[in-house]
């Protein structure tokens, strides 16, 4: 039987590797909390664009981030995000935000600010022996470097672009495959090359190439890993509330 998760699972990787879907499903199956840190940067990016702020103006980006209210649910059954009380779950996944989020995410003072909030959410969610699955691009290296299980998901750019395109199409957004692939490759370059918390696996992370794996296969492998690390309580996990 699957046990309930204790502690933190840090799940990193570039876009299109399935990490957000895997993280949410893993949290739900193991009765744990779930935190999508990438959504936090996307919410700030949306606020920046809506306010007409230059995404490359670091001081203005940070000032705006301090002035808005950003709420992120840690319930895997309802992982919503709100900006000043408004649900922006769909708005943060548009090409408009995709094009600017790397620039906003590269602002070091913003990363410091959001990392503090992320750590507070992790501590609150994992309090009293509970578990939390956290996904992003710097979880194992910066946000939760002491996590007992760190995983870095990868996949070929072509596979990731196909997945992103399928998500866009399912959401009713236009998806030209060549454009999506170029966007994925551009985001990889920007995220891996930024000075502040670049995208890279932690030294002790377990790396998984998901190119040929289904979500269920990745979930099974991660659940087994959590068990071997002693992170699962005996018995069947209860859904996280």
TrEMBL record:
One of its GO terms (molecular function) is dCMP kinase activity. It comes from the Bacteria. This is Cytidylate kinase. ATP binds at residues 13-21. InterPro entries: Cytidylate_kin, Cytidylate_kinase_dom, P-loop_NTPase. One of its GO terms (cellular component) is cytosol. GO terms for biological process: nucleobase-containing small molecule interconversion; pyrimidine nucleotide metabolic process. Keywords: ATP-binding, Cytoplasm, Kinase, Nucleotide-binding, Transferase. It catalyses: dCMP + ATP = dCDP + ADP; CMP + ATP = CDP + ADP. Belongs to the cytidylate kinase family. Type 1 subfamily. Its EC number is 2.7.4.25. It is an enzyme of class 2 (transferase). The keyword ATP-binding applies. HAMAP family: Cytidyl_kinase_type1. It is found in: Cytoplasm. Residues 9-225 form the Cytidylate kinase domain. It holds the Pfam family Cytidylate_kin. Gene3D superfamilies: P-loop containing nucleotide triphosphate hydrolases (3.40.50.300).
